[in-house]
Amino acid sequence: KEPSFFENSNHFEFLRKAEVKNILMSYMFFKEPKKVLEAINLIKPQNLIIDSGAFSVWANGQTVDLEQYAKFCHNLKEVFPKEINLYIVNLDVLPGRFGIRPTEQQREESAQQGWENMLRLEKEGLKVIHVFHQHESFEWLDKMMKHSDYIGVSPANDVSMKEKLNWLNQVFSITKDKIKTHGFAVTSHNQLYRYPFYSVDSSSWT
Prior knowledge:
The strands form two sheets. A four-stranded parallel β-sheet has the order 1-2-3-4. Helix 2 crosses helix 4 (66-79). The two termini are 28 Å apart. The protein has helices at 10-17, 33-43, 54-59, 66-79, 104-122, 138-147, 161-175, 189-194; strands spanning 22-26, 47-51, 85-89, 128-129, 131-133, 150-154, 180-184, 199-201. It is an alpha/beta fold. It is built from eight helices and eight strands.
């Protein structure tokens, strides 16, 4: 029998040996439910978050098809082990083009489209983590908190660390301990010790 991709992967072997219980996988790299199942059978986590990969494809001038993502999530949910908690990150919409500051109108339009995408995914009976982005109106954070007890928080990449921290101060002065938060690309020590994130991810561990 030929070894699988995962059995040849140093990263997956490290996760297996470390007995990691919580992982995030990107739809950008795992577009077939059977690949996701193969990975979790190797690692055996307790919690799995599937990320849409929206930021990565947006940064490369591409898009993720909502209906294909919804179909993938639905099919995965149908065959997913019941003993593992499955969470799906919303297909959020990033405004404008990578490297160019969007207008207020573009930000509002993208936030509205992201909300509609979340509602579409929830029709599949999925636990969806919607994402609040830096530069969006805090009215969206209030709306998300009323809708869900687990949301994503995404600091901007085009601002200084001081600006990120000031924004996170404001976010957590509102969320406090009322909901769970997932920090996207948030694994620096000063952020992890400073804020009560429930979960975080970044690719820098590799």
